[in-house]
C-alpha cells in the first residue's frame, strides 16, 4: 500500500503573498469601500511622496500641509449629502492650555437627555500631525455617538504640522491631558457618569498615551475605560520591509492600502524630530512595558483587516493582556485604515456597528 503525502500551499495574505496587489485587487476588500475610494484614486497605490523622513523640516511641514488639505477634502466628500444627526445639541467650550494656548472642546449631547450619561473624550486622528476635530468626519462621529445617549467631548489639540502646527511632541499630548483633567473636574456640570477616552489612528496614539501619562501623573481615576481604534503607535515605519515584516507583518502585507509606510515615516519625523522619543511610550505607546501598563482601566483595541497598522494594534492588545489589564480585541473585516469611521455613507452598517460598540463599552463601565 502506497501513501502519498501532499502538503497544501497556503498563500500569504495581501502583499506578503503577492507584492503587486493593491487595495482594489485584494480579494479581501469590501467592494463598497473600493467604490467609495475609486473617485479619489485611493483604491490603488499612489505616487511615492516627494520627501522622506530625512528631508529638511521646512519641506516636511510643507508636505504635511498639502497632505492635510487633500485628506480633509476626501473626508468631507465621504460624508457630503448625509442628513443631519437629529436630537443632538453641540456647543464649543474653550479652556486654557498648558502653554498659554487655548484648547477648543466640542461638546455634543442628546438634546432631550436627563440625568448623568456615559461620556467619551474623543481624540481625532491624523498621525498627531494633521487634520482637525472640526472636520466633518469627526463632527459626524461625535454627533452619532451622542445620539446613542452619550456626552461626547472632542479635543482640538495642537498638531505637529498643518493648520494647527507646528507643535512637536509632547504638545498634543499636553493638550489632551489638560482636556481630560478639565472634563473629569466638570463631570457633574457636563452630566457625565463614567468617562471613556477614545480615538482613531493618531487619536488612538494620544488616547493610549494620555492614559499612560495619567497613570504616571497619579490621575488615572479620571479614566473609566479606553477605546483605541486602529492605533498608530509603533513609529517603526522607516525600517526595511524585511524588518517590518518580521516584527509587524501587516506593515508589509497592507502597505500602500490607503496609507503607506513612507507617508507615516514623514509624519513620525514631523511629530518627533530626530526620533528623540523613538522608544518613549508616551510618544509611541507600542513600546510600553508591562510595568507601564499594569493597573490600567479596561480597554478595547479595534483594528481593521486591511490596515498596515493592524498588527501593532493587536500587539498592544496582547501586551495589555500580559500585564493583567482587561482588554477586548476587535477586528473589522474587509476595510482599510479607519474604514469603519470614514465610510458612513458607503458602509452604514459597518459604521453603525462601531458606534454601537463604543456606546456599549462606555455604558458598561
Give a verbal description of the structure.
This protein is α/β, with parallel strands linked by helices. It has helices spanning 14-17, 31-37, 57-79, 136-147, 171-185, 187-190, 202-217, 241-247, 250-253, 261-271, 290-293, 310-322, 339-342, 348-363, and strands at 88-96, 102-110, 117-123, 151-156, 192-200, 225-229, 299-304, 327-332. An 8-stranded mixed sheet has the order 1-2-4-3-5-6-7-8, with helices on both faces. Helix 7 (202-217) links the parallel strand 5 (192-200) and strand 6. Helix 3 packs across helix 10 (261-271) and helix 5 crosses helix 7. The longest helix is centred in the N-terminal third of the chain and has 23 residues, at 57-79. The radius of gyration is 20 Å and the shape is globular.
Please identify the structural class as seen in this structure: alpha/beta
H/E topology pattern: HHHEEEHEHHEHEHHHHEHEHH
Shape estimate: globular
Count of beta strands: 8
Helix content: 25-40%
Low-pLDDT residue intervals, each spanning 5 or more residues? 1-5
Output mean pLDDT: 96
Give the SSE layout:
Layout: H1 14-17, H2 31-37, H3 57-79, E1 88-96, E2 102-110, E3 117-123, H4 136-147, E4 151-156, H5 171-185, H6 187-190, E5 192-200, H7 202-217, E6 225-229, H8 241-247, H9 250-253, H10 261-271, H11 290-293, E7 299-304, H12 310-322, E8 327-332, H13 339-342, H14 348-363
Parallel strand pairs: 3-4, 3-5, 5-6, 6-7, 7-8
Antiparallel strand pairs: 1-2, 2-4
Helix pairs in contact: 3-10, 5-7
Amino acid at each position: 500500500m502506497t501513501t502519498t503525502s501532499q502538503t497544501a500551499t497556503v498563500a500569504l495574505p495581501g502583499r506578503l503573498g503577492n507584492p503587486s496587489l493593491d487595495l482594489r485587487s485584494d480579494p479581501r476588500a469590501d467592494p463598497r469601500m473600493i467604490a467609495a475610494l475609486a473617485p479619489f484614486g485611493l483604491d490603488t497605490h499612489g505616487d511615492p511622496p516627494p520627501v522622506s523622513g530625512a528631508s529638511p523640516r521646512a519641506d516636511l511641514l510643507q508636505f504635511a500641509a498639502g497632505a492635510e488639505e487633500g485628506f480633509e477634502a476626501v473626508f468631507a466628500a465621504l460624508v457630503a449629502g448625509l442628513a443631519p444627526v437629529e436630537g443632538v445639541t453641540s456647543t464649543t467650550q474653550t479652556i486654557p492650555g498648558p502653554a498659554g494656548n487655548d484648547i477648543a472642546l466640542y461638546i455634543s449631547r442628546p438634546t432631550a437627555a436627563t440625568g448623568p450619561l456615559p461620556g467619551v473624550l474623543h481624540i481625532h486622528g491624523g498621525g498627531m500631525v494633521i487634520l482637525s476635530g472640526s472636520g466633518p468626519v469627526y463632527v459626524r462621529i461625535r454627533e452619532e455617538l451622542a445620539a446613542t445617549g452619550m456626552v461626547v467631548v472632542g479635543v482640538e489639540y495642537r498638531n505637529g504640522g498643518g493648520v494647527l502646527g507646528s507643535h512637536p511632541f509632547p504638545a498634543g499630548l499636553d493638550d489632551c491631558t489638560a482636556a481630560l483633567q478639565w472634563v473629569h473636574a466638570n463631570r457633574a456640570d457636563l452630566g457625565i457618569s463614567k468617562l471613556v477616552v477614545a480615538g482613531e489612528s493618531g487619536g488612538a496614539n494620544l488616547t493610549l498615551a494620555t492614559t499612560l501619562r495619567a497613570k504616571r501623573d497619579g490621575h488615572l481615576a479620571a479614566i473609566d475605560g479606553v477605546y483605541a481604534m486602529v492605533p498608530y503607535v509603533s513609529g517603526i515605519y522607516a525600517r526595511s520591509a524585511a524588518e517590518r515584516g518580521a516584527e509587524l507583518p501587516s506593515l508589509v502585507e497592507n502597505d500602500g492600502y490607503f496609507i503607506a509606510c513612507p507617508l507615516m515615516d514623514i509624519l513620525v519625523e514631523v511629530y518627533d524630530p530626530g526620533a528623540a522619543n523613538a522608544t518613549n511610550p508616551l510618544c509611541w505607546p507600542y513600546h510600553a512595558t508591562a510595568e507601564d501598563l499594569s493597573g490600567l482601566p479596561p480597554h478595547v483595541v479595534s483594528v481593521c483587516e486591511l490596515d498596515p497598522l493592524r498588527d501593532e494594534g493587536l500587539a498592544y492588545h496582547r501586551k495589555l493582556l500580559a500585564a493583567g489589564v482587561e482588554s477586548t480585541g476587535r477586528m473589522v473585516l474587509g476595510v482599510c485604515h479607519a474604514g469603519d469611521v470614514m465610510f458612513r455613507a458607503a458602509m452604514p452598517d459597518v459604521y453603525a456597528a462601531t458606534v454601537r460598540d463604543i456606546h456599549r463599552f462606555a455604558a458598561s463601565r
